[in-house]
Specification:
single chain; 9 helices; elongated; mainly alpha
């Protein structure tokens, strides 16, 4: 497309303009990149870097597997990036390590299940990837500010109109 457009411009400008050529391949490539960027800006598209792609792949992996036990090595194996690079890039872009993000994802899902189902705390802890209900209770209390059972009852109380303390919402 770009080369065709350049040829049409030279032809429209007349024979004298035909002698004006780009002096090198790098100059042609620079012009091509400018056209691509301009097209992306007009179309509202964004140019994704390798870092953006890695972060999206990690988020996708976590969102798909948050209810299963996995390690940083499992994530890196699935997207073919070293664990160190994956962790560094992810934290730089999101502010969380992949495992912190996983914990927040699990707790966010637990919050949703607590208010939308009648499942027991043990069932919810297993469903969101905590193997141990005590560990689930500890992490939930630490990050949300109250136990899972208190969180559930506070939501029910809030729906009935009683004033109760605010909680923290994760992911």
């Amino acid at each position: 497309y770009f080369l065709r457009a350049q040829g049409q411009r030279r032809h429209a400008a007349g024979p004298a303009a035909g002698n004006v050529q780009l002096h090198s391949l790098p100059a042609l490539l620079c012009k091509l990149l400018l056209v691509i960027r301009k097209h992306c800006a007009i179309a509202g598209d964004t140019v994704h870097t390798r870092t953006d792609i890695i972060v999206e792949q990690v988020k996708s992996y976590i969102n798909t597997h948050f209810d299963e036990p996995f390690t940083l090595q499992d994530i890196s194996d699935s997207i073919h990036v070293s664990p160190y690079h994956l962790s560094h890039v992810f934290k730089a872009q999101t502010g969380y390590s992949p495992m912190q993000y996983t914990l927040r994802r699990r707790l966010g899902e637990a919050q949703s299940l607590l208010i939308s189902t009648g499942l027991t705390m043990t069932e919810i802890s297993v469903m969101v990837g905590f193997g141990n209900p005590c560990h689930f209770n500890t992490m939930f209390s630490k990050y949300i500010g109250m136990s899972p059972s208190k969180y559930r009852s506070s939501y029910v109380d809030r729906k009935s109109g009683e004033k109760i303390p605010e909680t923290r919402k994760l992911l």
